[in-house]
């Protein structure tokens, strides 16, 4: 889709004229550290989205574990264990190229989300990895996030989407299976049926 130049916003002045000034509350809520109230959100969150930037572009990766899986080392530092996945390591590749990261924490049933911006480093310190062992299995690395800004996002997006409303949930079978997606994209060069059949057990056996 091509946007007509007359209808495209390409400068900050025009953008500000359209949206106006931010409210006082939207500015006051931002802190350069993890305030005790924001600590409560992080400790209650079992899910987080991690945004990174690198030479190949932007990436957003889902991260999840029991609530409190992101550890608050101090009011300026978060520790995020990197659990088993598909080994694409898109986020980690990006962090090596550009340490800037953004985190979005979600707490089931809560409308507000928590946003954290900062810079990250990848650590494989054995003592640090040992802190995050599950069933005797440590993560391969830990992302150390040096916090720069923290603030909550109001509930409008989650209220509009009805994200936590059980009535909006759909059956997984209503969407293409992961095996079918890979099979069709590869023009049947991949056994999607076998992939789907083995997936549930594989996920459970490779969580950590």
Structure write-up:
- The chain has 208 residues and is an alpha+beta fold.
- 30% of the residues lie in helices and 27% in strands.
- It has helices at residues 12-19, 24-28, 36-44, 90-97, 126-130, 156-161, 178-185, 192-205; strands at residues 47-54, 57-64, 71-74, 77-82, 100-106, 113-123, 141-153.
- Strand 5 and strand 6 (113-123) form a beta hairpin.
- Helix 7 packs across helix 8 (192-205).
- The termini are far apart.
- The mean pLDDT is 96.
Number of helices: 8
Distance between the termini: 43 Å
Structural class: alpha+beta
Which band does the percent of strand residues land in? 25-35%
**Largest β sheet strand count, sense and barrel closure:** 7 strands, antiparallel
Helix content class: 25-40%
- Uncertain spans, ≥5 residues at pLDDT below 50? none
Helix and strand element order: HHHEEEEHEEHEHHH
Computed Rg = 20 Å
Order of strands across the widest beta sheet?
2-1-5-6-7-4-3
Task: Give the averaged pLDDT, no decimals.
Answer: 96
- What's the total count of β strands? 7
Estimate the global geometry from the Cα principal axes: globular
Which terms summarize this structure?
30% helix, 208 residues, alpha+beta
The gist of it:
This protein has 208 residues and is of the alpha+beta class. The protein has eight helices and seven strands; from the N terminus they run H-H-H-E-E-E-E-H-E-E-H-E-H-H-H. Helix content is 30%, strand content 27%.
């Amino acid at each position: 889709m091509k946007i007509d130049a007359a209808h495209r916003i390409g400068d900050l002045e025009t953008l500000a004229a359209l949206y106006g000034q931010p409210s006082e509350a939207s500015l006051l809520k931002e802190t350069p550290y993890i305030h005790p109230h924001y600590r409560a959100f992080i400790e209650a969150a079992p899910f987080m989205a991690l945004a990174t930037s690198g030479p190949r572009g932007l990436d957003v990766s889902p991260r999840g574990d029991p609530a409190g899986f992101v550890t608050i080392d101090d009011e300026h530092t978060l520790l995020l264990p990197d659990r088993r996945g598909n080994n694409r390591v898109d986020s980690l590749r990006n962090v090596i190229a550009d340490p800037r990261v953004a985190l979005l924490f979600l707490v089931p049933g809560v409308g507000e989300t928590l946003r954290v911006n900062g810079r990250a480093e990848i650590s494989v310190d054995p003592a640090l990895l040992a802190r995050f062992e599950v069933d005797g299995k440590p993560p391969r690395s830990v992302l150390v996030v040096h916090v720069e800004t923290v603030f909550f996002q109001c509930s409008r997006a989650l209220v509009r989407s009805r994200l936590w409303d059980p009535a909006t949930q759909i059956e997984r079978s209503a969407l293409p299976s992961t095996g079918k997606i890979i099979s069709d994209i590869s023009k049947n060069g991949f056994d999607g049926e076998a992939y789907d059949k083995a997936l549930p057990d594989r996920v459970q056996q490779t969580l950590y």
